[in-house]
Automatic annotation (TrEMBL):
Domain of life, per lineage: Bacteria
One example GO MF annotation: DNA binding
Record organism: Bradyrhizobium rifense
SUPFAM superfamilies assigned: Homeodomain-like, Tetracyclin repressor-like, C-terminal domain
Pfam families for the chain: TetR_N (PF00440)
UniProt keyword list: DNA-binding, Transcription, Transcription regulation
Domain called HTH tetR-type: residue spans: 9-69
PANTHER family to which the protein is assigned, alphabetical: TRANSCRIPTIONAL REGULATORY PROTEIN
Start-end of DNA-binding region: 32-51
InterPro entries: DNA-bd_HTH_TetR-type_CS (IPR023772), Homeodomain-like_sf (IPR009057), HTH_TetR (IPR001647), Tet_transcr_reg_TetR-rel_C_sf (IPR036271)
Name of the protein in question: TetR/AcrR family transcriptional regulator
Amino acid sequence: MKVSKEQVAEHRTRIMVAAARLFRQRGFDHVTVADVMTEAGLTHGAFYGHFPSKEALIAEAVGHALPSVANSPDPRRPAADYADGYLSVRHRNNRATSCLFSSLGTEAARGSADLRHSMTQAIRYRIDYLAADVDGGTSHARRRAAIAAWASMVGAMVLARIVDDDEFSREILSETRASLPLR
């Protein structure tokens, strides 16, 4: 049975969304192509009609899920509000839809050039986004503060997920938020 161009595009999107969710939950190495296709509601054999390899899927799925001007639902949301949501227990607990940097950053550092390029572009986007709402007299000072804020937020989320003490985890999140120069 012939599939329309619209259906092909829809299937590809379903595959990327399912893959991004599973990668955040389990990591790249613990997700198979079969897992992704089952999650997307498609057959395993259909995968290679969309992607030449799992590595290609990783790069595209992560790129699709990363923040950018093109896919940001609300690019003018105040950075302070963004930080409040990011450094929350809800975000910490919801790895499947959480930030790709805090769930996959260390794995992505060992990823393909395409994956690292997508991640680099998204990091630039997030830093530029935060630089608009941080304290600082010059553009250089605002950029420095934005880099420090973003690094602190991602690092805090990683640490909050690592520790096995919920009170300590919450403290990491709240104290990091209190330290950020976001207005």
